[in-house]
């Protein structure tokens, strides 16, 4: 972002791939052969191998559509396999709204080339020029309709051992018949009938059940444990202790739970009060030690005489939990077959062998590397398979529980061990979205228009995924070594930043100075939650814009349009305003309307939101109108579903959510102490997609969070007449601001 | 400070292991375990019925909903002994039920899920709601789903899908009973109908 304008194209790949094939993650660079992505298997099936994983966002369906489109095969013949380190290309993490851009772009190039290759082989064999041949349902036909082979007869595995050149032309979007259609998701039928569908549903022969006894508080150290009562349970197979990592394996799940509680009751911990009070943490965040990240500075400082007034405000949000509906779960099995010396050693067993892991991690390859580093085991002795899990919305417990499963399974070689975190484990130990404060100082001219914009954002880092800062980043590893969690880092600005994400105002201002401050005190472990720093930065920017509009006595829509130059941005704002009836909106008592706008990461999809709220005893969101421009859309209904979901989740964040703690430990540990939005408060969500079939697809999975949060804050300010600048927008916070 | 289910807290004398006899999806099943084992674990691990999901173990999220004599209840903290002498129905066993079938078709048509982890519990709650012939306006349906949580934000689609299913069932009843047939929202004289 720094030094280049927002929207700059990703760098071109070596080999001159056109822009639409290039990707931030370099999916093709890491996996250049066609065979890494595609297999034509007997029975007229096409296996598509991708490194991106299904997280409930429908990515397997969308990527399958891209493959079917470019290959010209029937949609029903496509099978997108779950990622695994023994089969799929390495595409690092499924994160950052990049899957359709990265994996989709790679697949488009791969499949276009496979189709061209098929035509060339068929042409060589038949003597008919390739230009006179076409592909339908995977078979090559000449103009008379005579078949000349198919993917399955002409492109055996050896033919696909060629690098992707990117030279094969992708289809003209005007000819698309599969891309752009709202095909139903291929994974949903199993999930709707109760068929085994999730990692926790896997049941291997001889499977055992593991539980980990987590420390009572973040800084706690295990001094002693009497495991005799736990071991006395007939179902208990083993107890594992390494440092402050304590776990148990049993042959029945309820006995593993019971044994874990016996261990908990007989464990002695050294604890200390290491947590700040939640309220002061947020207030004091700007004064804490931090790494300064210059984001952007442009324009000359504004002459003081032009500045009629200076407006400075702070906006903030406490720590949030991902609060996945299912706690983390993983399955692991150590192989003891035929490895010499594969005998138990030490009190927790351990074999010289390989391990297989089933996980709902966002990245099978990074997790493999992290496990390899933690266990001091070569990566080629570890196979990590992805299995669907409950929605994660970022980095939650999925990787940590995989470590737990591997460590517990090591004690019982040959036996698969399923480890299931409890609800308490999940709420107390997942890496939270960091509390964050953004302060904006604007110099305005006599007309109330902004001349200078200075923005500072403070939070602990938004990334402690496996591999961050060269660390495995696995909770159990820190507990085993009795060391505190390593302070979270931020993704580089080139991939959107963390604290700095969406910190640059999209509006035209003469002088802009934006700095992020990654706080390096980290009382609570933090990492990526959908949107990272964008949520608070967009909340801050869009709230400030409303405050400036009010000072200038200009309608918030008009004020935005006056200062927004990006045509696509203006189009989503104008569209959403029209759909919501913004201009003719009626505002009876206690009803408020608010706007929010952003382009996610400055390079992904555009999103504008109108919120209508009713604030009586608490805040009820009646309607959210949302307009999204995501360029070419692969699956419109899938995109709408993602936007609706993001909007409802953001409504929950904005109105209800807050991780709470006392001086010692986290106190929001179940669904009563960490409430989320329930069915009775469901807003009506009206999504409009702006059709741009000729434009490259833009990532959209995280697009709604910031603008919805901002629109809600603005709508509540409109409804109650005062501005609440700290989330969540609870009746207590609103009342405190009114009485202040 | 931990939030631990009551049943697994250490106590002097745990319940003994014995034969627990259940009626699940119309069949008699026997499992050897302690009588206070949560029903969910028996369903998932002993009977292979993995459609009821573990979400919290605290009866707070609804991912594990089953029908107990036709009433939707969380199974994650329901001791097995409390299910003895009752009819247990799971999402798998409800498949042939016309109400569940209408719900599943409507959910599929609406694509009313994202991760889908909460979905079978929601379907079970909605099935009990529609079978009871309760009102199916959005407010009543939302009340019926108040014990179910969804984190992906599929709420709007779920409410719409339940309304679609109610409408489809009503249309089917009209076709069956003629134009003057009783509306599906009235209490049904024949009681719950399902996979018995």
Total domain units of chain A: 3
Main sheet summary of chain B: 5 strands, mixed
- Beta strand % of chain B: 5-15%
Strand order of the largest sheet of chain B: 2-1-5-3-4
- The rounded distance between the terminal residues' Cα atoms of chain B is 43 Å
Mean of residue pLDDT of chain B?
A: 90
Unreliable residue runs of chain A: 1-25, 338-351
CATH architecture label of the largest domain in chain B: Orthogonal Bundle
Q: List how many beta strands of chain B DSSP finds.
A: 5
**CATH structural fold name of the largest domain in chain A:** Aldehyde Oxidoreductase, domain 4
Structural class of chain A: alpha+beta
- Side by side, the strands of the main sheet of chain A go 9-10-7-17-14-15-16
* Strand-pairing-aware structural class of chain B: alpha+beta
Radius of gyration of chain A: 27 Å
Task: Write the SSE topology.
The complex is a heterodimer of chains A (740) and B (196).
Chain A: H1 27-30, E1 38-41, E2 45-49, H2 59-71, E3 78-81, H3 99-126, E4 134-136, E5 139-141, E6 147-150, H4 151-154, H5 188-193, E7 208-213, E8 221-225, H6 228-232, E9 236-242, E10 245-250, H7 253-265, E11 267-270, H8 278-284, E12 290-298, E13 309-317, E14 329-334, E15 355-359, H9 364-375, E16 382-386, H10 398-410, E17 417-420, H11 423-429, E18 436-444, E19 450-460, H12 475-481, E20 511-519, H13 534-552, H14 556-563, H15 567-580, E21 591-599, E22 606-615, E23 619-629, H16 636-656, E24 684-689, H17 705-720, H18 731-739
Parallel strand pairs in A: 2-3, 7-17, 15-16, 19-20, 23-24
Antiparallel strand pairs in A: 1-2, 4-5, 5-6, 7-10, 8-11, 9-10, 12-20, 13-18, 14-15, 14-17, 18-19, 21-22, 22-23
Helix pairs in contact in A: 2-3, 13-17, 16-17
Chain B: E1 17-24, E2 27-34, H1 39-46, E3 65-68, E4 71-74, H2 80-83, E5 87-89, H3 98-110, H4 119-131, H5 138-144, H6 155-177
Parallel strand pairs in B: 1-5
Antiparallel strand pairs in B: 1-2, 3-4, 3-5
């Amino acid at each position: 972002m720094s030094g280049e304008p927002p929207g700059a194209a990703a760098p071109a790949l070596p080999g001159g791939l056109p822009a639409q094939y290039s990707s931030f993650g370099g999916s093709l660079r890491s996996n250049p052969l066609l065979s890494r992505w595609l297999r034509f298997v007997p029975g007229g099936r096409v296996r598509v191998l991708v490194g991106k994983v299904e997280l409930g966002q429908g990515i397997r369906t969308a990527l399958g559509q891209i493959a079917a489109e470019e290959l010209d095969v029937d949609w029903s013949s496509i099978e997108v396999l779950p990622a695994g380190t023994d089969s799929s290309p390495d595409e690092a993490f499924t994160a950052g709204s990049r899957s359709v851009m990265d994996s989709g772009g790679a697949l488009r190039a791969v499949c276009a080339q496979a189709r061209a290759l098929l035509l060339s082989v068929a042409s060589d064999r038949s003597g008919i020029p390739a230009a006179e041949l076409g592909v339908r349902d995977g078979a090559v036909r000449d103009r008379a309709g005579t078949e000349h082979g198919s993917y399955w007869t002409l492109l055996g595995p050896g033919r696909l051992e060629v690098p992707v050149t990117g030279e094969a032309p992708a289809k003209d979007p005007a000819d698309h018949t599969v891309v752009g259609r709202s095909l139903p998701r291929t994974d949903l039928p199993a999930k709707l009938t109760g068929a085994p569908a999730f990692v926790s549903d896997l049941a291997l022969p001889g499977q055992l059940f593991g539980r980990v006894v987590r420390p009572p508080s973040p800084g706690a150290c295990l001094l002693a444990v009497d495991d005799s009562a736990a071991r006395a349970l007939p179902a208990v197979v083993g107890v594992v202790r390494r440092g402050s990592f304590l776990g148990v394996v049993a042959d029945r799940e309820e006995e593993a739970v019971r044994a874990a509680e016996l261990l908990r009751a007989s464990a002695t911990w050294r604890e200390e009060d290491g947590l700040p009070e939640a309220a002061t943490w947020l207030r004091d965040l700007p004064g804490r030690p931090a790494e300064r990240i210059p984001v952007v500075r442009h324009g000359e400082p504004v002459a003081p005489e032009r500045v009629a007034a200076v407006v400075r405000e702070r906006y903030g949000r406490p720590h949030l939990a991902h609060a996945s509906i299912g706690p983390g779960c993983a399955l692991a099995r150590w192989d003891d077959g035929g490895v010499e010396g594969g005998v138990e050693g030490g009190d927790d067993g351990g074999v010289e062998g390989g391990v297989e892991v089933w996980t709902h991690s966002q990245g099978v390859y990074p997790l493999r590397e992290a496990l390899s580093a933690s266990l001091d085991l070569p990566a080629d002795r570890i196979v990590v398979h992805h299995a669907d899990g409950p929605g994660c919305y970022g980095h939650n417990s999925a990787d940590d529980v995989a470590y737990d499963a591997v460590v517990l399974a090591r004690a019982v070689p040959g036996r698969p061990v399923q480890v299931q975190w409890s609800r308490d484990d999940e709420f107390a130990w997942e890496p939270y979205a960091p509390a964050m404060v953004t302060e904006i100082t604007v110099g305005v001219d006599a007309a109330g228009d902004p001349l200078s914009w200075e923005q500072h954002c403070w939070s602990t880092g938004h990334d402690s995924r496996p591999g961050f800062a060269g660390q495995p980043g696995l909770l159990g590893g820190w507990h085993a070594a009795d060391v505190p969690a390593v302070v979270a880092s931020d993704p580089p600005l080139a991939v959107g930043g963390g604290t700095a994400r969406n910190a640059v105002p999209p509006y035209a201002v003469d002088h802009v100075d934006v700095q992020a401050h990654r706080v390096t005190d980290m009382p609570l472990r933090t990492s990526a939650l959908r949107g990272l720093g964008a949520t608070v930065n967009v909340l801050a920017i869009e709230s400030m814009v409303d405050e400036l509009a009010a000072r200038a006595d200009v309608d918030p829509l008009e004020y935005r349009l006056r200062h927004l130059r990006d045509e696509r941005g203006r189009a989503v704002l104008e569209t959403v305003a029209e759909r919501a009836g913004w201009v003719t909106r009626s505002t009876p008592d206690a009803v408020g309307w608010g706007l929010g706008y952003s382009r996610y990461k400055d390079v992904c999809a555009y999103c504008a939101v109108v919120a209508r709220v009713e604030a009586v005893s608490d805040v009820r969101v009646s309607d959210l109108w949302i307009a999204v421009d995501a360029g070419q859309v692969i699956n419109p209904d899938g995109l709408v579903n993602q936007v609706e979901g993001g909007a409802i989740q953001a409504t929950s964040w904005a109105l209800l959510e807050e991780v709470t703690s006392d001086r010692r430990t986290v106190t929001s540990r179940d669904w009563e102490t960490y409430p989320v939005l329930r069915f009775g408060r469901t807003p009506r969500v009206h999504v409009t997609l702006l059709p741009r079939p000729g434009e490259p697809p833009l990532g959209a999975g995280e697009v709604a969070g910031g603008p919805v949060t901002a629109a809600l804050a603005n709508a509540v300010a409109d409804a109650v007449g005062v501005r609440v600048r700290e989330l969540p927008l609870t009746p207590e916070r609103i009342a405190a601001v009114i009485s202040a | 400070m931990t939030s631990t289910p009551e049943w697994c807290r250490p106590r002097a004398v745990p319940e003994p292991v014995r034969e627990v006899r259940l009626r699940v999806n119309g069949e008699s099943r026997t499992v050897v375990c302690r009588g206070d084992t949560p029903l969910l674990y028996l369903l998932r691990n002993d009977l292979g019925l993995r459609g009821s999901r573990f979400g919290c173990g605290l009866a707070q999220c609804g991912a594990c909903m089953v029908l107990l004599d036709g009433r939707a209840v969380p199974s994650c903290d329901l001791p097995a002994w409390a299910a003895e002498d009752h009819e247990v129905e799971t999402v798998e066993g409800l498949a042939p039920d016309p109400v569940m079938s209408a719900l599943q078709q409507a959910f599929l048509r609406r694509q009313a899920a994202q991760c889908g982890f909460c979905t079978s519990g929601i379907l079970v709650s909605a099935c009990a709601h529609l079978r009871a012939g309760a009102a199916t306006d959005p407010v009543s349906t939302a009340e019926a789903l108040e014990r179910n949580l969804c984190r992906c934000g599929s709420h709007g689609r779920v409410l719409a899908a339940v309304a679609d299913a109610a409408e489809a069932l009503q249309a089917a009843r009209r076709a069956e009973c003629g134009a003057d047939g009783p509306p599906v929202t009235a209490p049904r004289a024949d009681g719950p109908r399902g996979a018995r």
